[in-house]
Design brief:
single chain; 434 Repressor (Amino-terminal Domain); 7 helices; globular; mainly alpha
Length: 100
């Protein structure tokens, strides 16, 4: 299986310098460990490939999207709890570190 990683464009270079933007979401890590593409993730989670790609982007990336509550629940079920609902948002510590 080919792994598709979220692309970081030149426009997002400034965002990537932010501490929050550096951490990849648990969903991205889970998918990479299993060699899953965005399309395969879309089939597993019941959403579009574009949505999977947007959820896998680093925190702080302008194209990043958070899943709906229903999609979060499906992700928890499919990943057997490895990707938790709270893992779709940066922690308070990460947010505060990015402010400094």
């Amino acid at each position: 299986m080919r792994v598709s990683a979220p692309a970081i464009t030149p426009d997002s270079a400034a965002v990537a310098s932010n501490a929050v933007a550096r951490r990849l979401p648990d969903l991205d890590i889970w998918m990479r460990e299993r060699g899953l593409t965005d399309g395969e993730g879309a089939r597993l989670f019941g959403c579009s490939r574009a949505m999977v790609n947007a959820m896998r982007r680093p925190f702080g990336h302008p194209a990043r999207k958070e899943p709906s509550p229903a999609l979060r629940a499906r992700i928890v079920i499919v990943t057997d709890g490895k990707v938790r609902p709270e893992s779709h948002v940066p922690t308070v510590a990460e947010i505060m570190q990015g402010v400094q």
